Structures are given as structure tokens and as C-alpha cells.
Amino acid sequence: MENQKKLTIELSEKPKTVGISLRANGTPELSVFTWDPASPEEVIKARLHRQKHFKELRHDAMRAEPRRFEKGRLGLSEAEITAIKWQAERGFFQRATLPDDLRDMRQRFREDFEQRIEQFHKYGAREIARVAESLAVYLADPCARAILNATGEFADMLTQAVIAQRGRKNIPLRLRTELWAECLHFGMSLAGFGLASRWAGKAWGDVPREQPLPHVHRLESLAEQANETGKFLDAFKPKFLERIRHSSSEWLDEADRRIDLRCLLSSGILTRTSRDASKKALLVLLIANPILTTNQVCGRLDAANETDPRRAPIPAAWKAGGATSWLDAYNKFQSRVKTYVSKVRNEAGIRVNHES
Length: 356
Prior knowledge:
By secondary structure, the chain is mainly alpha-helical.
């Protein structure tokens, strides 16, 4: 017994990171790494240990379910979209709070605890249904607003990921429709009774005297308690879900607003363009001076090259065609240069009214 007690104390003094991986023969292998939370070095080591473990888990998952890691219509894999959903869902529950009117109601529940017990004993199922339907209406509205905020956050993160994958921030209608669908699926998943009721329970709290059914804890058997709780849920669930789902069009409005905002805030110099020195120089110029014609663009880029020839190199294909500068290329094969500039404009979402 002394050894057992000593072991328990030692384990509780330090946090531990537990990892489970599979051996070559398929059997699980458990690894435990203890660390001192007061030591920056050990905290970093614990973090690296967890990252190594998660990397192994991801590798195992990719072998077991390779389709989850294939790129889909948004340019993202199912696993990548799921990671974004988890982050937005986490925020959904972290911000589970009641508005002032419901906090006042919860306070009255606590103050009137004994009187409420008498009401439930006197009126039974009728009182359970009355309280359940009333709470369903009151809780549905803040829950629907929380779903709206979480859907907006999901739309923002998803749009960032899509822009990063595409290398440009303009979102055509077909792709936008895909984003809408993904955002609505996410919002609807939060509006299912499992997650929505969990949000409501977290927001309301678990203080016994504040619970909607004050008499349940005084019932003698678990069967009686389950029966009373079942009556409450039968009245609460349909009204709660119906009222929440009436807000689905507002969730789509919020998602679309956040998509637009993310496109506006995104940098024009993105992954694909930044790897191409010619396109990068062209894009920097167009962002600062969007109304320039193609001829003017070529003149500006040649001027930049006079101070440093590496600032705006002409595309290799044009150089192979005999062009020595942007303006020279414009004079030799004007249509190709106009197409090139137009493509960069479109990728960056830059629109002009004049003929380039």
C-alpha cells in the first residue's frame, strides 16, 4: 500500500503526455513522457513529444483511410476541412453563455427552488411540459446566434485555406456555392440536438438548485428520474430544434459576408504568384496602380529593371522568343502580353473598366 501511495503522488506532481502507436505487428504501444510545467525547456520537449505522436497518428490514418487526405473540390482534403471544423466548434462551446434575461431566469429558479418543487409535485407532467416548452423558446435564440457566429468563423477560416491553396483571392460563383454548402453543413451539424443541447447545458450550468426539474434529484429510483427527464426532453426537443433551424438563412448570410471580408483582407501576393518573380512584380504594380493599361504596365516594369534587373524579369518564354524587355515583348507579341497581364489581374480579383 505504501508503494502504491508513493507512486500516485509521484505521477500527480508532474503532468504527463501519453502516446499510443502501433507496432509493426499491429499491437498498440503505450509511451508516457512526464515533464515539469515550471521548466520552459521541458514544456517545449513535451510539445515536441506530442507533435511526434500526432505525426505518427496522421501517418497511420493516411495509410488506413487515404481517401480522407485526397484533395476535393475546394482544393482541400476531408481531413483539412475537419480540422477547421474542430477549431470553429471549439469556439462555439467556449463562448457558450446566457443573455441577461436568461441569467435572471436562472437566478429566479434558484431563489424559488422550494416553491418550484411544490409546483412539479402538484401539476406533474403538465408543469414539466410548460417549463420545457418555455425554456426551448428562450434557449433556442441565443443558441442560434452562437451557431451563426461559429458558422461565420468557420467560413472565414475555410476561405483563408481555399485562397492559400488557389494562390488567388477571387472566388468564382461555382466555388462560392461550394463554400456556402460546406458552411451550411457545418451550421446544420451544430444545430443537431446532440451539439445544440450540449451548448445549452454548458451555457445554463449544472448548479442543482438552478435546474429546470428541481424535484428529480429527490426521486428515489434512477428509473423515476429517467422517466421525468424523458418527459421534459419530449416537450423540449422539437420546439428547441424547430426554432433554431429557422435561422439557417441567416447563417448563410453571415458565411457569405465573412467570405467577402476575407477576400477583401487577403494579400494579393499569394503562394503561386509569389513563386513566379515575373508575376509577383506585375501583381505588386497592379495592386498599387490597378488602372494602368498593359502598355503602361510594361513601361513601369522596365523602369524598375533599370535600377535592378532582378526586380521584374520578363517571362522565360518571352525571352526565348527574342524579347529583351517588357515593352519589347509588348511590341513583338502584344496579344500574349495582354493575356498574361489579364490573367494576373483576374487571379488577384482586380477589375478595370478600360480596354488594356
